[in-house]
Amino acid sequence: MAETHLAKAIDIIKKATEEDTAKNYVEALRLYEHGCQYFLHAIKWMRFADETQGERQRDSIRERVRGYLDRAEKIKAYLDEQQTNARKPVKASGNGNSKDSDSDGEDAQTKKLQESVSKAIVVEKPNVSWNDIAGLEGAKTALKEAVIMPIRFPHLFTGLR
């Protein structure tokens, strides 16, 4: 699963850079955000025999995602500036009010997506173990069964359950 997400993320980012180079910034922004989501899914599902090597690779991917998100932020700022400059004459004439409200809705959704992706990136690995959590044995067991076991043993959680 991680390999497919990683391959899909790479393809999407390639398309994003092509659109970016072609100055099709709206499409590039969408593709950068979409590609970063796939990279984060790939990180989540990666498995390694050597955990040290795995952490290095995950950190490398996180760095690339930060770079892509930085570029997406620059594109977003540029597009916002272009929209602001384009809106000034439109507001003076009173035309295009529905267009302005649609783009504001898209801006809010894009900003919300960027914030959620930024929050999903874990910069450092927390040093917390199950023993650090006092009590709540039932909750810890439920979390292990619902989250950790499917990640560690995906072959046991295939098909209809």
- Under CATH, the homologous superfamily of the largest domain reads Phosphotransferase system, lactose/cellobiose-type IIA subunit
Mean pLDDT: 76
Give the beta-strand count: 0
SS strand fraction: under 5%
Query: CATH class of the largest domain, anyone?
Result: Mainly Alpha
Determine the fraction of residues in helical runs and give it as a percent range. over 70%
Instruction: Characterize the biggest β-sheet.
Output: none
InterPro entries: MIT_dom, MIT_dom_sf, MT-severing_AAA_ATPase, P-loop_NTPase
Catalytic activity: ATP + H2O = ADP + phosphate + H(+)
EC number: 3.6.4.6
Enzyme class: hydrolase
Please give a structural write-up.
The structure is a single chain. This protein has helices spanning 2-21, 25-45, 51-93, 97-120, 137-152. By secondary structure, the chain is mostly helical. It has two domains: 2-125, Methane Monooxygenase Hydroxylase, Chain G, domain 1, CATH 1.20.58; 127-161, no CATH class. Helix 1 (2-21) runs antiparallel to helix 2 and helix 3 (51-93) runs antiparallel to helix 4. The longest helix has 43 residues, at 51-93. The chain is elongated and about 60 Å long. The two termini are 19 Å apart.
